[in-house]
Amino acid sequence: MSTRLTASDSTRDDAILRISDLSVALPQSADRQWALQGVNLTLLAGQTLCVVGESGSGKSVLATTIMRLLPRGLKPMAGSIHLQGENLLQATESRMRQLRGEGIGMVFQEPMTALNPVLRCGHQVEELLRQHTSWSATERKARVLEVFSKVRLPEPERIYTSYPHQLSGGQRQRIVIAMAVILKPRLLICDEPTTALDVTTQKEILRLIDELHREQGSAVLFITHDMGVVSEIADQVLVMRNGEQVEFGPRDAVLKSPQQDYTRRLLESVPSMKPPRPRHLPHQPATLRAERLQKTYISHNWRGQKREMLALRGATLEVQPGETLGIVGESGCGKSTLARCCVRLIDPTGGELLWGDTKVDAMPEHQLRRHRNAVQIVFQDPNRSLNPRLTVGQSIVEGARNFGASEAEATSLAQELIRKVRLPVAALDRYPNEFSGGQRQRIAIARALACKPRVLVADEAVSALDVSVQAEIMSLLREVQAEHELALLFITHDLRVAAQLCDRVMVMRHGQVIEEGLTADVYARPQDPYTRELLTAAPRFEPSLEA
Amino acid sequence: MSTVAGRQESPMPGTPVKPSTFKRLRRNRSILASAIVLAFLAMIAAAAPWLAPVPPELMDSAHIHRAAGHAGAVTLADGSQVHTTFWMGTDGLGRDLFSRVVHGARISLVVGLCCALVALVFGTALGMLAGYFRSVDVVLMRVIDGLMAIPGILLAIALVAALGPKLVVVIVAISIPEVPRVTRLVRSLVLTLREEPFVEAARALATSPLTILMRHILPNSITPLLIQGTFIAAAAIITEAALSFLGLGLPPEVPTWGNVMAEGRVAFSEYPGAVLFPAMLLFPTVLAINLLGDGLRDVLDPKFARRGMQ
Hints:
The structure holds 2 protein chains of 2 kinds. Chain A is α/β, with parallel strands linked by helices. Chain A contains 21 helices and 20 strands. Chain A is about 35% helix and about 25% strand. In chain A, strand 7, helix 9 (about 200-215) and strand 8 form a beta-alpha-beta unit. Chain B is mainly α. Chain B is elongated and about 75 Å long.
C-alpha cells in the first residue's frame, strides 16, 4: 500500500488528524449500543487537542481506535480517521505497525505498566529504532541517549542501563515519552499521562510534552479528566459524554462560554482553588488527638541486616467535633500511614494516640474492640472497599451487629442509613457490583456511619471519582458531618478538594507535618517553600463562566 | 468501562450487564461436556450393585479368561446358579470384569471426591491461619515446606504398609501431600485479601479475626479453591489407581480400576480386555475432571473471563 493514498488532496490538507463521523459499536451484551458515536474533529500541526470527559465517556476508546488497538468486540462501524490524508481504518495491519511509532506516538497513564520490568530502559527505547530503522548499534544508542537528554533525564548513560523500578514515577514517564517521540511522529496521543503523578511532577511533564511537540511541529491529542490541565495546555477542546461528542471548539470558547449544558455542569463541578470563607466553629475538646505519632517499618535483608523505613516521623494533630482537618501531600509523604495509624489499622511505633479520653496507641486489639466504633474510615477505591460477596445491607450493618444490635435493629438501621446516603431501600438486597463508583462510595459512608462514630477518616475518599460525583460525595460528607457533629479527617492529594472541604489543612512531606493552619490562610499565605511549590504547581484554572 | 457512565445516571441500575454465573457456566462447552461425563459416571457408580450382574469378588473357576460377550451360568456363593453375559469377559480368576469395573467407578470417584475435600479443608484451615496470623506463619510454613519435601507416593506406600490397606488410609495417604499445596495457595490468597480495603474496613468495625476469615476472606477465595479441588481430585484418582496397580493400595480382591489392571497385566498380550476396559473409564474420568477445572477457571477467574471484553 502506498504511503499517500490520495496524494493531490492530502498534501494540501494541513490537518494532521481528521476524524469524521466516527462510530464504534459495542458488543451486543453491553448496556449501550455505541462506544463512540458521530465523532468529528480536526487537529492541525502544532496544536494540542484535549479530550475531556468522565469515566465511560469513550475518550480512551477514541485513542485506541486511532491506534487501531481496539479490544476484541469493539468495531469501527462508520466514519473515517485520516492521519495526514491516509485513512487509518483502511490501512493494512503491517502499515499500521509501521505507523505506530513513526506516525503516531503514544504515552500511557501508568508508566510502570507501559514499561517491561525485566528489560533495561535503554534497551526498550532502542527496540523501536531496531524495528523501524536500519541503523547500526552505535547510531541507535547515540540517538537514544540524545532523546533521553531531550526529555531531560538526568545522566542519560546511567538511565540507559537502569531497570524501570530503579527510577522514579516522573522519570519512568519521561522514558515512555522518549519512546513516543523518538521516531518523530506527527501525532502524539497522551492518555492521562499525568494522572498517576504528583502535581509537581505533572507540571514538569506537561511542560516537556509542550516543548517537544512545538519543536517537532507535531500535533498532540491529550486525554484527561482534569480541567486544570486542559486550561493550561489545550488549543482545542473536545468534550465527550457516553461516547458522544458534546462540544468541540477552541479552548477559551469551550471553557469560558460553553454552548452545552453538560459542559457547563462539568465546569461548574470543578472545585475552586480558592477556599470559601472559614466557618466559625465553637472551641471544643478534641475527639481525636495524635501526639508525635511515629511509624517505622523494619525489614531485614537476606543477610539479616536491619533496614529502617521511617514512614511517619512524629506527626501531631487534633480534630474537634464538627471540624474538617485536611491532610495534603504528595504520594509517599506519609499521609495514608497517618490515617491508618489514627484508625489503628496499623500500630504506631511511637507517640501517643487518643480517641476522646482513651489512650489507644498501644492498646491490644481485644481491648480496643470496645472503642472501635469511635473512629471509622472510608477508603479511596470504591471497587475494593466493599466485600463483593456480601449484599449492601449485610455490609452496612456489619459494625452494628458487632456491637450487639439485634437483627431487627440492624434492618431498620440499614434502611435509615441507605436513605441518608440517598439510595433506594431496595439497594440493600443487591450486591456491590451492581453499583457505580459514586454509589459504592455512598454505601461505604453508610457503613462507616452505622456504628455512630465520632471521627470519620476519609482516605482519598473522592479521588477515584469523576468531578460531578466528587461534588455529590463532598456535599454528602458535609451533610453527615453537620448532622452527627463528626470530626472529619480528610486525606487527599487534591488541593482543590481540600480547599473546598477543609476548615484546616496540614501539609505533609517525608513523614512530617511541615505546615498547618486555617485553609484560607495556608492557601493565601503559604509559609513553607514546599507548600508554595505545591500550590503553584497545581494547574491554574478557575471555573469562571460567562453568564 | 462502558457501563460506568450509564449507571451513574440512574439511581439504580436495572439489569446487570453480565449474565448470571450459572448461565455463564452452562454456556462453557468444556464445563457442559465434562459435567455430562461426570454425571454419567456418578450414575454408574451409584447404580453399581444393580448394574453388576454378579458380585465383583465372585470367582468361578469355570469361567477363566472368557472373551467379552461370552454368555454362561455362574455359581454364586450360596451354590445357586445365575445365567449371565460377561460383557467385558472375565479375568484369570474367573471374576466378571464388567461387575468389577462398574464397582471400581465407586472407589475411584469416592477417592477423588474425598481426597479433594480433605486436602481443601485442612489446607484451607492451615493456609488461613498462616496468612492471617503472622506469628503462626513462620513456624507453620516451615512445617509445610518440610511436608512438601516428602515424595507423595512414598508416603502413601509407608502409610498403607503401617496402617493396613483400608480405603480411609488410602484417602488420607493421598490427601496429605496435597495439603501443603492448598495451604500455600490459600496463604497467598489471604495475604492479598487481608490488604483489601473491605477487610481493613471490617477490622475498623471491630469484626473479630475469625469472622473476618469466614465472612470476608473465605468467600472470596472459593473460586481458586474450587479449581484447585478439581485438579486434586483428578490427581488422586490416578494416584489411587497407581497404588492399586503396584499392589500397594487396597487388597487385590477389592474391585478398583488399578487392581483390575494389575491382575490383567500378567496376561495382557492374550487377554488385553482386563487392562483396556478399566483404562477406558479411567481416562475419560480424569480428563473430564481436568476439563471441568479448566472450564471453571475460564468462567470464574476474572483474569480469563474479562479477556476481550474489557
